[in-house]
Amino acid sequence: MNEKKENMKKAIEVILPIVSNLSSSQWERLCSLIRMYYTNKAAKIMLDGNDVEKLKKMLHEELLRF
User: Which residues in 6-41 are b (16+ Cβ under 10 Å) and which e?
Assistant: First the structure.
């Protein structure tokens, strides 16, 4: 299996348990924030370790602030 397919297979295995515990609106909010972060990094194809840490911080601030 090529690397892209293997990465996607792993992502599916990780995402499905998460999706099953979120409402539609929670999932949409999460996707929206991640999409926004990628848009701000438009020149990048993938996020690096530093970007992932910043994304993690942003998700915690936005989704767990209440």
Answer: eeeeeeeeeeeeeeeeeeeeeeeebeebeeebeeee
Contacts 24+ apart (CB under 8 A), 13-19: none
pTM of the model: 0.69
Higher-confidence residue of 62 and 44: namely 62
Angle between helical axes of 49-63 and 24-40 (0-180°, round to 10): 140
d(CA 6, CA 60): 28
